[in-house]
Amino acid sequence: MRYTTVLFDLDGTLTRSEKGITRCALYAAEKMGLSGYTEEQFRSFIGPPLFASFKRVCGMDDAQAEQAIAHYRERYNAVGYAENEVYTGIPALLRSLKKNGCKVAMATAKPQAFAERIAQMFGLAPYLDALVGPGFDNKHESKAHIVRRAMDALGGTAVMVGDRCYDIDGGKANGIDTIGVCYGYGSRQELAQAGATHIAGTVEELTEILLGGAPRARGVLISMEGMDGCGKTTQREALVAHLMQLGWDVRCTREPGGDGIAEKIRALVLDPENEGMFDETEAYLYAAARAQNVRAVIRPALMRGRAVVCDRFVDSSVAYQGGGRALGAEAVAALNALAVGDTLPDVTIYLRMPPERALSRRLSASEPDRLEREQSGFFERTYRTYEARFDGMARVAAVDASQSIEEVTRDMLRAVDARLGELTL
Q1: How many CB atoms lie within 10 A of CB 12?
Q2: Nearest to 121 by CA among 87, 81, 158
Q3: 11 with 21: CB under 8 angstroms?
Q4: Contact status, residue 108 vs residue 133, Cβ threshold 8 Å
Q5: Residues near 227 by Cβ (< 8 Å), separated by ≥ 6?
Q6: CA quadruple 241, 247, 248, 249: dihedral positive or negative?
Q7: Which helix or strand (DSSP H or E) is residue 266 part of?
Q8: Contacts 24+ apart (CB under 8 A), 268-271
Q9: Can you point out the beta strands (E) in 163-202?
Q10: 127-149: per-residue pLDDT in tens?
Q11: How many whole angstroms separate alpha carbon 42 and alpha carbon 23?
């Protein structure tokens, strides 16, 4: 790797922030009594300082621009900062940079307080060694000075990555290489004319420029567990949408299932007509499907730096076959050791719900499969095994699934964000 320190711009480089910025600029213009503008006209606000942008686009004098900035920040502080999403592939890139010992900083013209809030909310903060931006009272700080402060903080052989000519100019002014990214808000022509050392059209191209042949960081595996009927399907959709907003390339799978072979095993093990299936046969079939899913779906996705969301994993077998079927939790865990090897969840979401309530909800939704036709004692043993297994387990985020859907989603996402921020590479 040619660089030991990588400085990133924020808007248009790490995050797609157009909605928040343009809506806040439009809000400010309207508060200043200016009408007839559209959000599209404020796209040029992405990159340069607000003070200069309000003067240039709206023809304001210094005093008016100051007042417009106050209106802008009023809305941005309330909702604008959250009207944002991380570009797909950025978490994988940042994790890979850290894996290879790089220092990473954010060098942005956005007020540092706002940038810190965004970095925290969108999962970027754990990967940053420094975050440099102007204070609210320093509207004239140049990008060159911001870049210099970031370089002074981290040292090393640095490169500046950004989507506008201002980022390229800031890097060049400090004598360092620059990478222009044209997936943001600047054009390839703008970046080339500014004299960018490299230009990347996609996050993938940026990754190749920065990492070359260096090893990539593994993705993350998130499993979802709980009694049938606890709401996993609904919450999985919310989780996937959240991970995508954080910039993860998400791969969903389920157990038993995953690829064509594992899905055939799923059909066999859940078919209500297979009443004569022995408990041990069932346990081995689940392990077989899991072995296939791990090798055909999960590991390849993790090697590409993706986030894998798996509906059930080893913990389900330990609970349902080890506890529910009374085969023994340790015995079933040992049976699955060969199936999964070292591929284990980084985070497990446990939607905790008493078995009688969960099963009632499940049976009201559709016809029961073979396992769901079992007697209440089966589900009570399964639930007790879940509770015992997950008690004090660090990777588990236990959420009260008896709450409203919105409350469950809120608690789940908070717990997932916290655990993702704690993961080691």
Answers
A1: 23
A2: 81
A3: yes
A4: yes
A5: 353, 354, 355, 358, 359, 379, 382, 383, 386
A6: positive
A7: helix 260-270
A8: 269/370, 270/369, 270/370, 270/371, 271/369, 271/370
A9: 177-181, 198-200
A10: 999 999 999 887 678 999 999 99
A11: 8
- Please give the structure tokens belonging to residue 208: 């190749």
At CA 338, angle to CA 260 and CA 326, rounded to 5? 90
Domains belonging to the chain, first-starting first, are 5-14+84-211 (3.40.50.1000), 18-82 (1.10.150.240), 220-422 (3.40.50.300)
Contact 80, 28 (CB under 8 A): no
The ranges of the chain with pLDDT < 70 are: 139, 361-375
CA–CA distance, 109 with 405 (Å, rounded to integer): 38
CB 257 within 8 A of CB 291: no
Residue in the block written with tokens 């222009």: 180
The letter for the amino acid at 240 is V
Bridge partners, 225 (sequence order): 350
Amino acid residing at 105: A
Strands 396-400 and 85-86 turn out to be unpaired
pLDDT digits (tens, 9 = 90+) for 284-324: 999 999 999 999 999 999 999 999 999 999 999 999 999 99
How is the beta sheet containing 158-162 ordered, strand by strand?
130-132, 103-107, 5-8, 158-162, 177-181, 198-200
Q: Do residues 77 and 64 touch, judged by C-beta distance below 8 A?
A: no
